[in-house]
Amino acid sequence: DLLGQWLALPLAISAVLVVQGSPATGLRRAAYALALVIVTLLAFQQLPLPEGLWRSMAVRAALADDLQAGGVSQVRHAWSLSPMASERGLWSIFPALALFLGAIALPARHHRRLLVFVVALCTASIALAVIQMGAVPGEPIDRLFNPYSPSGHPAFNGFFANPNHQALALAVSIVIIAALLVSSWQRQSTNAAVIWERLGLAAIAVVSFSVLPMTGS
């Protein structure tokens, strides 16, 4: 996790530099503002507070009493009740933030390819989950394709250790497919390849929606 967070920093910085050199749009400004609000809220929790103001809330006073009873005399008076957890939260947001900024920095002609790539990854996660469910517990194929679940308890997790993340990926894929289909219909193309593409995307959306209950999320 820490390595991913550190690697996200140069990606985020390079994305910002790329966007600064390209024409700004209202939507792009709104996206940057949203990202800035998220980071600001997390960073705001690290700001120090005077001890009197910090203890003005009953929950903080009770926390200070508990810490003092445990032998902790030096308490960091910040907005957050758990400053270290808030700091970890700030760092953990960087990989997602870097990918978000990187997607914005991409030229518009590559946006559709990026969306299709995300759908392809989510579809591959479904295929892997099917293998996981069908693998015999304890066999080599089970240990190879199902490393997160204890033997004897197959899970429809795909690439993810957490079934909630698998379900979220499928939900994201469905939303992206809906956007791609709307965009395709707006072009009003009757090309055979485009029609087959629409059918394929619709089929993936139906499958993704149908298997959501199997994740156990």
Write the layout of secondary structure elements.
Elements: H1 2-20, H2 26-44, H3 51-54, H4 58-69, H5 83-92, H6 94-105, H7 111-134, H8 140-145, H9 163-187, H10 192-211
Helix pairs in contact: 1-6, 2-6, 7-9, 9-10
Describe this structure in words.
The protein is extended, with a radius of gyration of 23 Å. The chain has ten helices and no strands.
Q: Helical region count?
A: 10
Order of helices and strands: HHHHHHHHHH
Structural classification: mainly alpha
* Helical fraction: 55-70%
Question: Any idea what the radius of gyration is?
Answer: 23 Å
Strand content: under 5%
Question: pLDDT below 50 for ≥5 consecutive residues: which ranges?
Answer: none
**Whole-Å distance between the termini?**
23 Å
Can you summarize the main beta sheet?
A: none
Total strand count, please?
A: 0
| Structural shape | extended
Q: Short summary of the structure?
A:
With 217 residues, the protein is mainly α. Helix content is 70%, strand content 0%. The longest helix has 25 residues.
Provide keyphrases for this structure:
single chain; 217 residues; mainly alpha; 10 helices; extended
